[in-house]
UniProtKB/TrEMBL annotation:
Keywords: Disulfide bond, Signal. GO terms for molecular function: acyloxyacyl hydrolase activity; calcium ion binding. Residues 1-27 form the signal peptide. It comes from the Eukaryota. SMART domains: SapB (SM00741). GO terms for biological process: lipopolysaccharide catabolic process. Residues 41-120 form the Saposin B-type domain. The lineage of its organism: Eukaryota, Metazoa, Spiralia, Lophotrochozoa, Mollusca. This is Saposin B-type domain-containing protein.
Length: 584
């Protein structure tokens, strides 16, 4: 199904998506998110400032003009994006060459271009050095004539997505972010053979895309004596006993699938820092940019709950994969391929219950049970509004939304399933550990700290989380206070209604991130090493993997029935079916 309410879905999304021009055009459905659009040029201003910063820094590093530097940046990009980038370069080059001198401040350049303005209050600047720039502006009155000839800049609020070249890149992004069901799915069972666009990166591979009864998690038809109907790679019969292997190895194994209903943390939002650090820009770091975009800048294949491949992107992802799925598979090889990542950037309790949950694929009579994690750990207190507290989810709504989702799950999950409801995070860990560190964009000149970034995003009213990404300690504390209230509400829903669900057992767990940070620092690490450097908001690959370990240990100790027994036939399955990929 289509998720039509883009406006809310986007709230937990890093603002750096916007920098990639997603939210700019009026015609763009994603942009109907007033908070993301912001004031003073909002995301157009931030996008312009980042691009100009990178070009200018590249020019400095390679001792070349900004026009050459922009050509260089375009040349690093993969084919499908390179063309539009070159069109953009041809358009903007003559303007930039007039505007950007060696010491030009990107804030000033983007003010002159009118992507940044003061329509909604005081001027927003990410760089602090403004004295020189004011003079610089005054020396360049001619520029105005040059770029004002272009209609793009005549509107009071020019949009980056309307600029030639950039327009095509925006369209590419729009297409990728529009749907939350697989786009290539011939039989309509919500499983795909393609990797991206909500395909196998997100859900197990459909081993027969002409048959909707054949997909990961189905009850094997006739014990898969001839064909692999549940896509776990196990099929055929044992010649010695003439019994089907599914019957011998899996029938009594308490096999189960795994799914997560979550936000950008569960989807594993990750923008490579190498894309935002001029000293690291190269062709190699953009090699898989299209793949990244087609997966909504998420990395579900390496995530805490549904990670299922080794990290083979060492240029842009740092750390190993570990996941609940991986461990469930190791515990019982019959679980192969039975994972669904139903997480969406920006998801909160309301969008989950009105939209996103319907994307989970499970049938009570045809499929086997699942372990489902409900993990909406921040967006209900995160928004970009200056009056942030007024826009947080209330306790009543939190209860109603989560109950609605759980009651829906009770209608699709096969009997003997399990649901784990997670509380909200304490986002104070972000500011506490990042505030005086240097952001990738400021590395060349040591001139942008996370505090400066957070203040800038709040000034533009495009922060993914004003409450926690805030230099005011009282605001951060109050945000945590509300998050705790909402966690308590979730706990109460589980206590009050837990017994009423017919088809699953349910447990509440606190958000494991606090324990993850403790575990890491106790073993000698530093907390900032677990946080995404570009957005200063999400947990990175190391954090994702460590979260899987912490959650798993928790379940082994307290809720072993949630993960099921070890399958004594794992060894035989390996011997006969190898990596279980042969039917795929
Ligand atoms: C930069 O390039 C200019 C001419 O293109 C040259 O004169 C100058 O010496 C170069 N500077 C450095 C540091 O290489
Ligand atoms: C990941 O790497 C390990 C060790 O190199 C290997 O045993 C395993 O099969 C790999 N897993 C996948 C899914 O490729
Ligand atoms: C599950 O599959 C059965 C048999 O095809 C079908 O009748 C039923 O409607 C399905 N249930 C749901 C919730 O789609
Ligand atoms: C679900 O399974 C349990 C135990 O296997 C059984 O007691 C219960 O009656 C079943 N519930 C339904 C609705 O079939
Ligand atoms: C911090 O936020 C609180 C609560 O909104 C406010 O009362 C206080 O004035 C703020 N402090 C500063 C220094 O802005
Ligand atoms: C925020 O809460 C922490 C921990 O409770 C406390 O130590 C700190 O003083 C509080 N800060 C403010 C500004 O209220
Ligand atoms: Ca399919
Ligand atoms: Ca199928
Ligand atoms: Ca099978």
């Amino acid at each position: 199904m289509y998720i039509t309410n883009y406006s809310v879905i986007w709230k937990f999304t890093s603002v750096f998506l916007i920098i990639l021009c997603i939210s700019s055009g009026e015609s763009n459905p994603i942009s109907h998110f007033s908070v993301t659009r912001g004031v003073n040029g909002g995301s157009n201003c931030a996008g312009c400032t980042v691009v100009v910063s990178l070009i200018e820094q590249l020019g400095e590093i390679h001792n070349e003009t900004v026009v050459k530097a922009l050509d260089r940046l375009c040349s690093y990009l993969p084919p499908k994006i390179k063309g539009p980038c070159q069109v953009f370069a041809q358009f903007i080059g003559p303007i930039l060459v007039e505007l950007v001198t060696q010491d030009a401040n990107p804030d000033t350049v983007c003010q002159t271009l009118r992507f940044c303005n003061t329509n909604g209050g005081p001027e927003c600047r990410i760089y602090k050095t403004d004295e020189f720039q004011k003079n610089n502006m005054e020396q360049k009155p001619n520029n105005l004539n040059l770029f004002m000839k272009h209609s793009y800049f005549l509107s009071a609020d020019p949009k980056i997505c309307e600029i030639p070249g950039i327009k095509d890149i925006c369209k590419l992004l729009d297409d990728a972010f529009r749907y939350h069901d697989p786009s290539i799915d011939i039989d309509g069972d919500k499983y795909s053979t393609a990797e991206t666009f909500r395909g196998t990166s997100w859900r197990g591979r459909d081993c027969n895309d002409d048959n909707k009864y054949t997909h990961p998690g189905s009850r094997p038809i006739n014990y898969d004596a001839t064909d692999d109907s549940n896509c776990n790679g196990i099929y055929g019969s044992d010649p010695a006993t003439t019994k089907p292997y599914e019957e011998e190895f899996c029938a009594n194994s308490q096999a189960r699938g795994i799914a997560v209903l979550g936000d950008s943390i569960s989807a594993h939002f990750h923008l490579p820092e190498e894309w935002f650090d001029a000293t690291k820009l190269s062709e190699a770091v953009f090699k898989d940019a299209l793949f990244v975009i087609e997966n909504e800048i998420d990395w579900p294949e390496l995530s805490t709950v549904t990670g299922h491949v080794n990290n083979s992107w060492p240029e842009v992802v740092h750390g190993n994969m570990d996941s609940i799925y991986q461990r469930l598979f190791e515990r019982n090889h019959c679980n192969h391929g039975d994972y669904q990542n139903i997480a969406v950037n920006g998801a909160r309790s309301n969008t989950m219950s009105t939209n996103i949950m319907y994307s989970l694929s499970r049938n009570q009579t045809l499929d086997i049970p699942m372990l489902v994690t409900y993990a909406l750990i921040g967006n209900d207190v995160c928004n970009g509004h200056p009056d942030t507290f007024a826009h947080m989810t209330t306790v009543e709504d939190m209860k109603a939304n989560s109950l609605k989702t759980l009651q829906y799950l009770d209608t699709i999950l096969p009997n003997n399933s399990y649901v784990m409801v997670m509380g909200l995070a304490d986002g104070r860990v972000l500011y506490d550990n990042l505030h005086d560190r240097i952001h990738p964009l400021g590395r060349l000149r040591n001139d942008i700290t996370y505090t400066m970034l957070y203040d800038y995003l709040n000034c533009l009213q495009i922060s993914p989380c004003t409450g926690w990404m805030n230099s005011n300690g009282t605001v951060r504390n109050l945000t945590t206070e509300h998050a705790e209230t909402l966690s308590t509400a979730l706990k109460q829903v589980v206590q009050q209604y837990g017994k009423t669900f017919k088809n699953f057992k349910i447990q509440y767990i606190d958000c494991p991130l606090t324990e993850v940070f403790d575990t890491w620092t106790k073993s000698g690490g530093q907390a900032w090493q677990l946080i995404e450097p570009v957005d200063g908001f999400h947990s990175n690959q190391i954090g994702q993997a460590l979260t899987a370990q912490v959650m798993w240990d928790h379940m082994v100790k307290l809720y072993p029935d949630f993960i099921g027994p070890v399958n004594p036939f794992n060894k035989q399955i390996e011997e006969i079916f190898g990596n279980q990929m042969r039917s795929v």
